[in-house]
Write a structure and sequence with these properties.
Helix content: 40-55%
Strand order of the largest sheet: 2-1-9
Low-confidence stretches: 1-16
Strand content: 5-15%
Radius of gyration: 20 Å
Length: about 400
């Protein structure tokens, strides 16, 4: 995979052109592939449908990703170059609360889907209490701190719903393993992705904090607090940037990051600040969130890679990151009561709606959310992602909840 483009000025992603190599790489002769790729490059896309239609389509695609797994987990992605992959423990974990929410708002049958996710995860938990890295088809033995944190999120949500003591004990075993792996300075390095610490692990420690609050375990809260301090040491208060929030040491040295990991960092810090009652964390998130809102206002879209000066470093969008940032802005609206956050959030959601494969003759694509826009862009090019669908669904549900409390106010 090529590195994100280091550029000072860019054309809008929808003006990109399809290269001949894409025809072969993405098997454009297969059912629905050509339409998906060509649609993603159109300058003038058809108007989006009502939010409910987009929600139901994304939820149906997520169901298909679970039904085809054969093990109760949710398959990570459908790739245009090779088809379906295998169940992804990390994302299966945080899809659990999404299924619970869909059961409340769409159809009670989603509860049985959440239960299947839980059963799958309990069946692959390692003796140490950790959960495996990556997708299950590639690894069942090597642990991952980040994946373990995301799965704790789902297990706690299921325990809150069901009261299942076995599930809570599994979450606590995972939490104890995380505490044991944490370094003295508050970071996680061993077993972490590429064995380097990253500030996006705030989206790990926030679930450890939630677990500590849920079961009144001070060791989990203390661990999360130490990590919050470590992340804040990477924060640049002059403009809100968090250093070391990228996936690799090369990206971190360039002080750039995918919008996806930037959003992980900010969402994790906001949740940490609220659970631990740390206003310094929440204030740091506000500064970064305002900066990204300014990027959206300037470009009318959000580049999928940004640098430490909040400049574009890719000519494609990261749709997962768009949905995540929209969620963050709506959470800040709930906290601050400032409608400015809603304008940015709703615009980011609309950009994802424009790129959703709302209709396709290929059931593996219908309703799916691609990694980038256009589909051949930087972040998971030629792939539709279960975590993109998850965050998009969460964003639509969050928007609907806000609008339900604002009668007569147009979105």
């Amino acid at each position: 995979m090529n590195s994100p483009m280091a550029i000072d000025s860019i054309e809008l992603w929808h003006k990109a052109r399809i290269r001949p190599s894409i025809v072969w790489r993405y098997r454009l002769w297969c059912n629905g592939h050509a339409r998906a790729v060509l649609f993603s490059g159109l300058k003038d896309k058809s108007e989006t449908a009502a939010d409910q239609i987009h929600l139901e389509a994304a939820a149906a695609w997520l169901c298909r990703a679970q039904d085809l797994s054969g093990d109760g987990g949710v398959i990570g992605r459908y790739r245009l170059d090779r088809g379906w992959t295998t169940s992804y423990p990390e994302t299966t974990g945080y899809i659990i609360p999404t299924f619970i929410s869909l059961a409340d708002t769409l159809d009670p049958s989603y509860l049985s889907r959440a239960a299947k996710c839980v059963e799958f995860l309990l069946g692959i938990q390692l003796e140490s209490g950790a959960f495996p890295a990556g997708e299950i088809g590639a690894n069942r033995t090597n642990p991952s701190p980040f994946n373990t944190g995301q799965i704790i999120n789902g297990l706690v949500a299921w325990h809150q719903h069901s009261g299942d003591a076995v599930v809570l004990e599994a979450a606590c075993r995972a939490g104890r393993w995380l505490v044991a792996q944490q370094d003295e300075d508050g970071a996680w390095r061993q077993w972490f992705y590429h064995n380097i610490p990253s500030t996006y692990s705030a989206h790990l420690s926030c679930w450890l904090a939630e677990l500590g609050a849920h079961c009144a375990d001070q060791s989990f809260l203390d661990s999360a607090d130490r990590h919050l301090d470590w992340v804040l040491r990477q924060h640049r208060p002059e403009n809100g940037w968090f250093d070391n929030c990228g996936f690799t040491s090369e990206v971190q040295s360039l002080r750039i990051a995918d919008l996806h990991t930037i959003a992980y960092t900010l969402a994790g810090m906001l949740h940490l600040g609220q659970v631990l009652e740390r206003d310094d964390a929440v204030d740091a998130v506000r500064r970064a969130a305002r900066a990204i809102a300014s990027v959206l206002e300037q470009h009318n879209w959000i580049p999928g890679v940004l640098d430490h000066q909040w400049r574009a470093r890719a000519d494609s969008a990261c749709l997962t990151g768009n949905a995540q940032i929209a969620l963050l802005w709506m959470d800040l609206h709930r906290l601050d009561g400032d409608d400015m956050w809603l304008g940015s959030a709703y615009r980011a959601i609309e950009l994802v709606k424009q790129s959703q494969l709302l209709r396709s003759s290929n059931p593996n694509l219908a309703g799916a959310i691609p990694g980038p826009a256009p589909m051949w862009g930087w972040y998971n090019g030629g792939v539709v992602l279960n975590w993109a669908a998850k965050f998009f669904i969460d964003a639509l549900l969050s928007k609907a909840a806000i609008e339900a409390d604002r009668p007569g106010v147009a979105a």
